[in-house]
Amino acid sequence: MKILILGAGQVGSTVAESLVSEANDITVVDSDGVKLQQLQDRLDLRTLVGNASHPSVLEQAGIADSDMLLAVTQSDEVNMLACKLAASLYNTPTRIARIRATDFLERPEVFNSNNFCVDFSICPEQILTEYITKLIAFPEALQVLEFSRKRASLVAVRAFEGGPLVGKPLKFLQSHMPQIETRVAAIFRKDGAIMPTGDTVVEDGDEIFFIAATKNIRSVLSEMRRMDKPSKRVMIVGGGNIGKRLAKALEQDYQVKLIEYNKKACAKLAEDLTHTLVLHGDGTDEKLMQQEHVEDVDVFCALTNDDENNIMSALLAKQGGARKVIALINRSAYVDLVQGGKIDIALSPAHVTIGSLLAYVRQGDVAAVHSLRRGVAEALELVAHGDRKSSRVVGRRIDEIELPAGTTIGAIVRGEEVIMGHRHVVIEADDHVIVFVINKAMVGKVEKLFQVNIGFF
Fold first, then answer.
1. I need a surface site. Which of 62, 149, 159, 249 has the fewest CB within 10 A?
2. 2-122 and 233-347 share one CATH topology?
3. 29-44 burial, b if ≥16 CB within 10 A, otherwise e?
4. In this predicted structure, what is the pLDDT of residue 22?
5. 389 CB contacts (<8 Å, ≥6 apart)?
6. CA–CA dist 4, 66 (Å, integer)
7. b/e map of 360-395 (b: 16 or more CB within 10 Å)?
8. Fold exhibited by the domain 233-347
């Protein structure tokens, strides 16, 4: 597929890195030549310095024969204009735009074919807000991902010494709660992946990914590890796009404090947020943390635009007694360094966001894509089509399907029913199949497996 990406920021570069490894023809346009050179030094792709909304620049970048346009610059207006030009002048088949302003997002008619011709709009800030909200609702979890209109969920937890599962084989889970169906899709141990069986013994520090019907998630979590107290008090550092959205989403159900360094921004935040206590101050100020009783905080979220400040304030909060700390970190190298240490969860905005884009790029009928473990693994929701003759999955038991190495079928959503991916289950047409891939290099093979033979049509 020939894909034109506008914007070489965190989202654009992460998407490019993911797609270029899947044999796509990628061109990236940005006005910053240094960013493009750094990208080209690492990846096999074309780059072009220029204004992403100028027709001459788009033509040089190859818009005329591109299959897809991903407009993910920092400017909503540039992204929308580029989509309009791509549709009107070059008839580009698929056009995706990054949109940050709520005013645009609340008016979907802005994006239709009579206006800016945006097929799909993505708001990284809103995706991150929803993601963090789920982590606060399930304080035991490292990741909470939803599939098939929220009917099934994939959850990651860390096993700890003295926890209910440590030292026991996975089959203990099934015998311990026979009324609830769940399946462990994968275990990561010391950065290596383990394909689990019933005899796999859980060790301290293991990162366990399990899937279950969303309604059963709390019950399964209680068996995976001792339940933490429900979160009540949340402290947020950073009143930017994400911090403000998160405070607004939480303030009706939680006690929320928001610390912002900019005095003018504080005044505006205090106007817009009705039940949030807005404080003017520095999130790395230890005395301020003590004054605001950080030891009583259930979840501390460091969400400024500065990675180092987020890391420092999260570490201070943890040292001060906050129960769970989350830090927003843009640089991937930093994420890998701090995740799982004193900082409970290090969030990479690009990796949280990328799944929404990948679902549009993947081959076959892909309903959802989620990036796992900072992009190392993926979980896909694929729709099975055809019959036993035209499909390599429909009409077959799971143990008959030739899955690529490191791939497991976690669950199947059939109508309202969530069926665990046990080996004897037969896949039917229109099933939504949730597949866990521990090695991203195998994603292409998984997609091809679910494609219908051309004779079917």
1. 149
2. yes
3. bbeeeebbeebeeebe
4. 67
5. 453
6. 7
7. ebbebbbbbbbbbbbbbbbbbbbbbbbeeebbbbbb
8. Rossmann fold (3.40.50)
CB count, 10 Å around CB of 453?
A: 11
**φ, ψ dihedrals at 76, nearest 5°:** -60, -40
What phi, psi does 345 have (nearest 5°)?
-135, 125
Give the C-alpha separation, 326 to 299, whole Å. 7
CATH 3.40.50.720 fits 2-122, yes or no: yes
Band of pLDDT at residue 283, cut at 50, 70 and 90: very high
Structure tokens at 284: 């790395």
The β-bridge partners of 372 are: 377
Mean per-residue pLDDT of the chain: 88
Question: What tokens were used for 387?
Answer: 């019959």
Q: For position 1, what pLDDT does the model report?
A: 84
**355-456: which CATH topology?**
Alpha-Beta Plaits (3.30.70)
383-401 average pLDDT score: 92
The pTM of this model reads 0.85
C-alpha span between 5 and 124 (Å, rounded) = 16
Give the residue-averaged pLDDT of 10-20. Answer: 85
The residue count of the chain comes to: 457
What are the residue boundaries of the structural domains of the chain, listed by start?
2-122, 233-347, 355-456
